[in-house]
Amino acid sequence: MKKIPAIIAKELYTYFVSPVAYFVLIIFSSLSGFFFYAILLRAVVRQELSTAVMQVLFRNYLSVTLLFFTPAMTMRLFSEEKKTGTIELLMTSPIRDVEIVLGKYLASLILYLLMLSLTLFFPLMIEPFGQPDYGQIISGYLGTILLGASFLSFGLMISSMCRNQIVSALTSFGVLLILWIVSSFSDRTDTTSQFLKYISPVTHLDDFSRGVLSIKDTVYYASFIAVSLFCTVKSVESAKWR
């Protein structure tokens, strides 16, 4: 595991010498700022300046925005190396497959945390008016971090299976969009609908956005990430035999 920091540094360097990091940071901060402003204006009209502003932002806007940005952050991690042929050099180097996967994943996670940190001043803007509940806000950020981490792990898995960045991004976006859509079954009570609701990552954000630290939801996200990374490692291992 000593070589993971080197892989992280290499991937972060690659992010910032290409337009990817700047595109993600600038566009995400612009969109999240616009959404926050729109929610804030509506809250002012209704005289509801409170933590509910951040709750709506977490649940209804940032979760959807991540569907677009996380595939863009992971699409090149393996696909580009396969296309350029550098994957062979990586695979023949004295680095274990699990170190490669974890290094690439943690690099994307660091970029995601940097991206999310650009929204930290939002709660301060409603402080003079709404006396926000910072416990609930911290819980909402924790849930959003886990949601984004889950999306990144899935995107990394898809990237390890594709040779083309665009195919990787579109496949990740398409599957994650389907998982997001099935959350609409939350109003139904039959077994199938409840199962579809459970497998949707977005529905597990609800309790976090309300300030509830649920063990069930935390375990779900941890399991989602672990399974995705495990499948990524196996995909990388299988590529050596092709």
List strands and helices in order, with pairings.
Elements: H1 4-16, H2 19-46, H3 52-84, H4 86-92, H5 97-117, H6 122-130, H7 134-161, H8 165-181, H9 191-199, H10 206-209, H11 215-239
Describe the model.
The chain is an all-alpha fold and 242 residues long. It has one domain. It is built from eleven helices and no strands. Helix 7 packs across helix 8. The protein is globular and about 60 Å long.
Quick tags:
242 residues, mainly alpha, 0% strand, globular
Distance between the termini: 26 Å
Task: Give the overall pLDDT as a whole number.
Answer: 84
The domain tally reads 1
The helix content, as a percent range, equals over 70%
Q: Would you report the number of β strands? A: 0
Shape: globular
Largest sheet: none
The stretches of 5 or more residues where confidence is low (pLDDT under 50) are none
* Order of H and E elements: HHHHHHHHHHH
Report the structural category: mainly alpha
**Proportion of beta-strand residues:** under 5%
Output the number of helix runs.
Answer: 11
Gyration radius, rounded? 19 Å
